[in-house]
Amino acid sequence: MINIKDLSVRAGDFRLSNVNLRVPKSAYAVLMGKTGCGKTTLLECVCGLKRAVAGSIYFDDHEVTNLRPAERGVGYVPQDGAIFSTMKVSDQLAFGPSVRGWEKSEAKLRSEEIADELGIGYLMNRYPAGLSGGERQRIALGRALSCRPQVLCLDEPLSALDDDTKDEICELIERLRRNHPFTALHITHSRAEAERLGDMIFKIEGNDCLLVEGQAN
Amino acid sequence: MAEEAYSPSKIRSDVPFLAAIWGISGMYVVLIIAVLAADASYTSVHDLWSAVNDPNVRASIWLTLQTCSVTAILSVIVSVPAGYVLARYHFPLKRVFDSILDIPIVLPPLVIGLSLLILFNQVMVGGQSIEKWLGEWLSGLHAWNESIPSGVTYRIPAIILAQFTVSCAFAVRTMRNTFDGIDPRQEKVAMTLGCGRSGAFWLIALPQASRGVIAAGTLAWARALGEFGPVLVFAGATRGSTEVLATTVFLEISIGNLEGAVAVSFLMIAVAIMVLTAVRILGMRQTV
Predict the structure, then answer these.
(1) Which of B193, B204, B286 has the most A C-beta neighbours within 10 Å, making it the best mutation to test the interface with A?
(2) What is the per-residue pLDDT across B182-214, written as a single tens digit (0 to 9) for each?
(3) What residues of B are in contact with residue A84 (Cβ under 8 Å)?
């Protein structure tokens, strides 16, 4: 489903060259590597937030290399959720459908549906200030899934959470995987998290992105 | 050994540090209060009342409020995109671009006035000065509506331009710091959800920058109120025409009316405190 071919991407002075990676449809891939090796740069390139210098990215057989982020059908969950601080939770969950031109009633219905699924219905009228790390990550996940993306990109979504909350969010991700047909690319430093969630584990070493666990097809 | 390391005698007292920071801050506050008290001792209620009732001073107050407000609005319009560009984008010669935006802060105000005067009257574009180009265009509008000035130099637009050139630089700094403090990943998330760059700016970045916008506008307004040098050189100090409060103080001093100058200074302080307080209260209400 995600097929990265000879991709080169640059972030300031840093350059990641000739990366190849293939994640089958509906698989959950975990990307590991040392700090500063280019994991986030690669993930942002998949999301369309960084331009590829060379190479190509395909979702199914559709090339998305030069498409804008909004045109790719990706959901993005950054490290601490990057929750919109001026919006109520209900507005955050309805944001994607609204900007994509859904009817107001449809967007509201979708936000309620997602909130029920993630168990955050009680937060709908709250602003982000004062929410816990776990609640923020649930909102970020819900917001990313609100437009039913084909690819979900998660950048260390559990790194700032305590063990119990990490466990809860892992269970939530496992449940979401059963209900939603997305293909995931998840960055983590935690081996335990990678083994629990990942169908396949990739590791960036130098300029190589190696499949260290799981099968490419 | 460990006990010795944790002994209270080994840890420096906080008293000198606290005394230093409170003492230095307090001294500055005392200086400002002393300056205001000195002004107050040199004026009287009668002088203030006379100043308020002087038609020239009244016209000056009204023109000051108008020009400062226009300057603040223009500064916000320019500083928001400029601050956003500086905070979000890396481009060749960014440091040069950044330094150019700081020039009005470091240049002596008189030099800015002089530079504007030369730009509008000595630099030729297509064989004509900018003043002449604008003069022809504004004359057409002036014929249609007499309240519109027929030129720039030594007229009201020159006051606004002189104030804007300095004030906007402070507003740009404020907006840059504001956008630097907003997590760009929120805009990135918005772009994956369906926004373009403009949507991410209008829907995510700008609402979060609302306090900064109010701060930038307030700062620009306050700077414009105190601007004297560039206004004097570029707009002149003609009674009832291009007289703003800062130039009123100058005109009163030039005719030897020190009491009047101090009274007008007090009015400036009062106007500044009222406007800044009102804007801050409104800003706080909006962002609660």
Answers:
(1) B193
(2) 999 999 999 999 999 999 999 999 999 998 999
(3) 186, 189-190, 204
